[in-house]
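G., the chain you wanted modeled:
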Amino acid sequence: MDNIFLDSESDFNYSGRMADDEDRLIRYVDLCIEGARSGRCYLYLAHPDLIYYTGSDKIYQRENETVVRSNETDEYSVGI
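Predicted structure as tokens:
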């Protein structure tokens, strides 16, 4: 995943745009994990925190822990 958009760039769904939508956060986390698991030549996940999530701190923490846990058990683990 070498872009910072959640869908296509033409949708202007930039990850760094302020939002409190939990589904948007989960989509971002899923894309980070998918990119790491793709088997491509990713050395690290540069900004798992790029998304500007303004909702619940508990939900934000949970989803960031999901990224970390997926990396610990993954055959294609990348640095975070």
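The helical segments are 22-37, 57-72.

Shout if anything looks off.
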